[in-house]
Amino acid sequence: MAPHARGDVDWVAVGIADQDVLHRAAPSAHPLLRRAAAHSPHLPPDLLRLLAEDTDVVVRTHLAVYHPDTPEEVLMSVYARLGRRFSAWMATGHPRRLSTRR
Question: How far from 53 is each of 44, 47, 50, 66, CA to CA, in Å?
Answer without folding.
Answer: 15, 10, 6, 16
